[in-house]
Amino acid sequence: MRFLSYSAKMALPTLVFSFLSCSEVPTKGDLVHLNGYWEIKEVVFPNGGTKAYKANMDIDFFSLEGEAGYRKKVQPKFNGHYQTSDDAQPFTVQTTDGALQLHYSNELTTWAETLIALNKGELVLKNEDGITYHYIRYEPFNLEN
Question: 22: exposed, middle or buried (C-beta count within 10 Å: 0-12, 13-18, 19+)?
Fold first, then answer.
């Protein structure tokens, strides 16, 4: 490290931490974590801007069997149940350029989202416009207990 400048020596720990904390690219084996309720926490825009969410009225519910599933918005209630409509957006999971993608299609359009991270407590999706959505596993509350 003698050949590194002082600023490079100071930046090295940050760089190493960044590499170590990066999530690995999700694999098909990670898809078991997709099922369930997810709460959006932050949106990151292509220009670097962000929008944080402190509370959400709507939660995303994902259901996946094999490589086909659906996604729908639900509203949690204080009794631990959810209010939902019959609207659900079907999707398929496909591998494109080595990355897992959720491919959606309806009567009007088609689009895809790339899985950036997926584990038991974190879901990160990036859409075709470069907008990244960060979710955490939703923990329901129940005031009746």
Answer: exposed
> For 91-102, what is the mean pLDDT?
96
The conformation of residue 141, written as its DSSP 8-state character, comes to: -
d(CA 93, CA 108): 20
Looking at the domain that runs over 24-137, which CATH code has it been given? 2.40.128.280
Percent of the chain, pLDDT > 90?
A: 65
- E-strand spans in the chain? 36-44, 50-52, 59-65, 68-76, 82-84, 89-96, 99-105, 110-118, 122-127, 132-137
Q: Are 61 and 71 in contact (CB under 8 A)?
A: yes
Model-level pTM?
A: 0.79
Domain boundaries, the chain: 24-137
Q: Taking 90 as the threshold, does the pLDDT of residue 41 lie above it?
A: yes
